Amino acid sequence: MPSVSSAGMETLHVDRDNGIVTVTLDRAAKKNALNDVMWNELLATFREIADSDEDRVVVITGANGEFCSGADLTGGGRSRHQLAAMRHVGDVALALHRLPQPTIAKVRGVSVGAGCNLALGCDLVVASDTARFSQIFARRGLTLDFGGSWLLPRRIGLHRAKELAFFADIIGAAEAEQIGLVNRVLPDAELDAFVDGWARRLLDAPPIALAMTKRLLNNSLEVTMEEALDDEGMAQTVNFGTQDTIEAMTAFVEKRSPNFRGR
Hints:
Elements: E1 3-4, E2 12-17, E3 20-25, H1 36-50, E4 57-62, H2 82-97, E5 103-107, E6 110-112, H3 114-120, E7 124-128, E8 132-134, H4 148-156, H5 158-167, E9 171-172, H6 173-178, E10 184-186, H7 188-203, H8 207-218, H9 225-240, H10 243-254
Helix pairs in contact: 1-2, 3-4, 4-5, 8-9
């Protein structure tokens, strides 16, 4: 049975199953909208996962057939001074971005505003055909937050990002896949099995190499080709000093699957 480490949490369920961590947003009455408590619990959870040697893959999803309806602006939302509140939101976005483990967003139902950017902040986004996405901020007289201004152009290009941000339209899963907002769209009944399959494939991959690959790709638009090659060289030097690379070479010679341990 999976172990559960959600004790004392009001808005999240954190389930651990042999290296796969599933973080489920759960505020059913608000379609899993993000309030102060959820921001705090997400930040604490992401930091805990980042420090764990046992957590190898992270899946983020929502309860009750919805992913996340964005920040809760109707009360019980942000109790802090606004700028301090936004800096706290930024801390959560950065904590997700900095996770060394690969992350998968499993999206059903609504995924709008900060909820949309929570999904896009993951390394991979897999959606049910029930999913709906929107950068809804302009409808509320607001600008993008939770990293949307950085994430969107990198996902779908600058001009398409401006279209989603300016018009704040709600788009379905098929269009989201067409424009590159998500990696895969599946019938709802197939979503859980597909994400579990991806998570288990990542679980079998070398953790150190994956973490460095993730960092190289995240930094790729910020560095020159020369800097990228230097970074690749340093990453490979680290890899060749790990037990996992030795195990990979040994397994290749012995014609078996490698057993990576993150060492």
